């Protein structure tokens, strides 16, 4: 079900910039809209259009709605870079029956960077904007906003939730041993509270500075830094990165850290889990692409908190599929659901005592041509609505791992602790 209106008439005007302040500095302190990695990314300021979707057809409905909006838009774009012209940022829920809505947001102002090129885009709705303000002009660069307060967030697991997670891993392993399913991904949550008036640019800056190989994002209250590219599609070229198989880092003990990396590379269990994830992506992408190629062997991806087994994929589109359509074809991968997909999703619904919402869904951007870049929403948390009396906002962080035959519950719990660390450290005082 969708709340998308009939395709509005939008006008998007992009202009090059000589430079701009750091993207995080331009973000709204309380409701940031951000997508950044190193010397690439964008920040949105204000909203011109918000589209919401839900249910099993959310990707198809979003793709159709966005295609109609793009066809009806006036775009003045001499920049002609990925992410210039008309752009929406979005986040999609994990489950077909989630109570969380999926969303596409067209910012009023978008400031973007690709290496040494900067640009600004202003997008207006011609039906509601006064004609004098909608005429083409050079959009004005907003000033960086002064930093506010950051008191930090203390996270805690709900009483009994750790024991429940361990019991869930044991039950998942029992079901796998019984046959009919090879992998189930189970997650758990920790909760905290963001005080009223907190400047969320502090944790975003920490994530962006520390997790250089990840996309740091903030979309509709979903905040995190994901290492896993679900799909990037630009000018017919398609790429993805698959992560499955994890070991905690020991950055202060180089010898132990190297041992953890080698254990990951030689673990039959982790290689088996990784193969599931890669095959699920290959199977989903194959109908849409040609010349599909992958890394010869999984390689170790080093992040500040963990080692991951990683495989990169590349291909060429052989049909006019938008980035959102590709996301819909790929989601959910075995890395966040399991194998077989339909059976594992049903098992997750039984064994996880919460709605994942946007966690392990997709977050990213799309432009008027249908190009875009989307990651799996991992290493992240979700802001809730402010308390009417105190103004404080609940914040829930989620992390999980793949359960296969032989999984050890205590090891799986430790893996979730490592995967939660990016958020718990970024949101600390």
Automatic annotation (TrEMBL):
Gene3D superfamilies registered for this protein in UniProt: Anthranilate synthase (3.60.120.10)
EC code: 5.4.4.2
GO MF annotations, alphabetized: isochorismate synthase activity
Any Pfam family the entry gives: Chorismate_bind
Source taxon at top rank: Bacteria
Keyword Isomerase: yes
Keyword terms, alphabetized: Isomerase
Top enzyme category: isomerase
Catalytic activity reported: chorismate = isochorismate
Domain Chorismate-utilising enzyme C-terminal: 163-419
Signal peptide positions on this chain: none
NCBIfam families: isochor_syn
UniProt record similarity statement: Belongs to the isochorismate synthase family.
Protein name in the entry: isochorismate synthase
Organism per entry: Leucobacter edaphi
């Amino acid at each position: 079900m969708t709340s998308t209106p009939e395709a509005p008439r939008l006008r998007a005007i992009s202009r090059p910039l000589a430079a701009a302040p750091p993207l995080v500095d331009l973000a709204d302190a309380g409701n940031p809209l951000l997508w950044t990695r190193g010397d690439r990314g964008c920040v949105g300021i204000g909203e011109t259009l918000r589209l919401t979707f839900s249910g099993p057809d959310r990707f198809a409905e979003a793709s159709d709605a966005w295609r109609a909006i793009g066809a009806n838009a006036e775009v003045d774009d001499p920049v002609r870079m990925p992410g210039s012209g008309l752009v929406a940022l979005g986040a999609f829920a994990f489950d077909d029956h989630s109570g969380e809505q999926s969303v596409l947001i067209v910012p009023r102002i978008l400031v973007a960077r690709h290496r040494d090129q900067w640009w600004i885009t202003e997008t207006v709705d011609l039906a509601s904007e006064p004609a004098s303000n909608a005429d083409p002009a050079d959009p004005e660069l907003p000033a960086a906003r002064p930093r506010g307060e950051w008191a930090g967030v203390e996270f805690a697991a709900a009483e009994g939730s750790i024991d429940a997670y361990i019991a869930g891993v044991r039950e998942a392993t029992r079901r796998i041993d019984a046959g009919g399913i090879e992998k189930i991904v189970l997650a758990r949550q920790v909760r905290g509270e963001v005080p009223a008036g907190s400047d969320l640019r502090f944790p975003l800056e920490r994530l962006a500075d520390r997790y250089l190989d990840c996309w740091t994002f903030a979309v509709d209250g979903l905040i995190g830094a994901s290492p896993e590219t679900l799909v990037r599609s630009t000018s017919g070229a398609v790429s993805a990165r698959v992560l499955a198989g994890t070991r905690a880092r020991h950055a202060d003990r180089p010898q132990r850290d190297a041992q953890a990396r080698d254990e990951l590379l030689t673990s039959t269990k982790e290689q088996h889990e990784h193969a599931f994830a890669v095959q699920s992506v290959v199977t989903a992408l194959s109908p849409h692409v040609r010349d599909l190629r992958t890394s010869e062997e999984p390689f170790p991806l080093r992040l500040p908190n963990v080692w991951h087994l990683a495989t990169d994929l590349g291909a060429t589109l052989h049909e006019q599929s938008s980035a959102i359509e590709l996301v819909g074809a790929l989601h959910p991968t075995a890395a966040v659901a399991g194998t077989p997909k339909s059976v594992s999703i049903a098992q997750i619904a039984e064994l996880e005592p919460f709605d994942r919402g946007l966690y392990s869904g997709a977050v990213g951007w799309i432009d008027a041509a249908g190009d875009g870049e989307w990651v799996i929403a991992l290493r992240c948390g979700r802001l809730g609505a402010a308390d009417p009396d105190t103004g404080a906002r609940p914040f829930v962080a989620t992390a999980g791992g793949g359960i296969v035959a032989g999984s050890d519950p205590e090891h799986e719990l430790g893996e979730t602790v490592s995967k939660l660390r990016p958020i718990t450290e970024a949101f600390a005082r």
